[in-house]
Amino acid sequence: MSHLLEVIDLEVKFGLRIGDLTAINGISFSLDRSGRIGLVGESGAGKSVTGFAIINLISKPGFISAGRVVFNGRDLTTLSAEQMRDIRGNHISMIFQDPMMTLNPVLTIGTQMVETLQAHRNITRHEAHLIALEKLKQVQIPSPEKRLAQYPHEFSGGMRQRIVIAIALLTDPELIIADEPTTALDVTIQAEIMDLLRQLCEAEQTGLILITHDLGVVSQVTEQIAVMYAGKIVETGPTALVVDSPKHPYTQGLIQALPGSLHPGTRLNQIPGMMPTLTNIPPGCAFNPRCPLSAAICRQHEPPLVTANGA
Q1: What's the rounded Cα separation, in Å, for the pair 95 and 166?
Q2: 47-94, pLDDT tens digit by residue?
Q3: Residue environment code for 253-265, b if the CB has 16+ CB neighbours within 10 A, otherwise e
Q4: Pairing with 40, which of 91, 177, 216, 241 sits 20 to 30 Å away (CA)?
Q5: Which residues does 280 contact at the CB level (< 8 Å), separation at least 6?
Q6: Cis peptide before 246 (omega within 30 of 0)
Q7: Exposed, middle or buried: residue 1 (CB in 10 Å: 0-12, 13-18, 19+)?
Q8: 237's torsion region: left (phi>0), alpha (psi -120 to 50) or beta?
Q9: In this predicted model, what pLDDT tens digit does every residue of 259-300 receive, in sequence order?
Q10: How many other CB atoms sit within 10 Å of the CB of residue 19?
Q11: Is 151 in contact with 109 (CB distance < 8 Å)?
Q12: 189 close to 222: Cβ distance less than 8 angstroms
């Protein structure tokens, strides 16, 4: 079976006056049809840039400098702006962190959903209205007919995120990229939204790339995981295997920092220091200044990518 998506040696740079800075440094991963992968790491690891690069939405001065993004056998990096517009929305949808960035505050939910559908499909307003209604039911919005006539500010944060998921599903895409979709929500609502997203992807046979800093969320939703640090993937493999027996010290640090890994009343573990900036990535293994296992070799050579495969 061919992969739905293959990211091959992808490199993204930002052209600045001081020169080109590398934000994504030769990452590769693949996703099967209806597969679910999590891109995990702290802020600045390059997760969101990877998501935007896949759908060719990198803002200037950023640009894809090398590599390929093969979706359904087509290299998206070679397509024209018009061809990419057809891919975005019709075949790949994106869910952003803040639903209010996606939703127009002065239009009703119904208007926004109908206009989205009519932009991508040759259907009547009535047909679009019926599809919108069905998608709101799918994301478990109560009284969907009434809700279509309401404005975004009339919904809670969790409800707004459900609506954004419904909009992402409108055109029955083959792949959804969800960029920190539950960051602004409280923990119980987060769990509900992530459970809903997993169920919908399974029911619709939709692929999912989940971008998050939260390993707890990833283990709940995804089958594969790719841990990112300073623009590179440092560990990858089946989610359960990576979470249960992480090999890279950075992955170990992320898991040890989870509240559930400690006895009640003890201080939370944290990884010392911060993610390096693009202008100051250390030589050798980029994690070496923060790593408890760092040795002289780490400052000279980068370790090979760890692929957990259960072997």
Answers
A1: 10
A2: 999 999 999 999 889 999 999 999 999 999 999 999 999 999 899 999
A3: bbbeeeeeeeeee
A4: 91
A5: none
A6: no
A7: exposed
A8: left
A9: 766 667 777 788 999 999 989 999 999 999 999 999 999 999
A10: 9
A11: yes
A12: no
3-state class (DSSP) for residue 286: coil
Q: Name the token pair of 82.
A: 């018009």
Strands 74-75 and 207-212: unpaired
What's the rounded Cα separation, in Å, for the pair 259 and 4?
Answer: 35
Angle CA 188–190–192, to nearest 5: 75
Residue whose structure tokens are 């939370």? 268
Read off the amino acid at residue 150.
Q
Contact 251, 242 (CB under 8 A): yes
- Nearest-5° Cα angle at 181, 137 to 160: 45
Q: Token digits for 164?
A: 């954004």
CA–chain centroid gap for 240, Å, is 18
Q: What are phi and psi of 9, to 5 degrees?
A: 50, 45
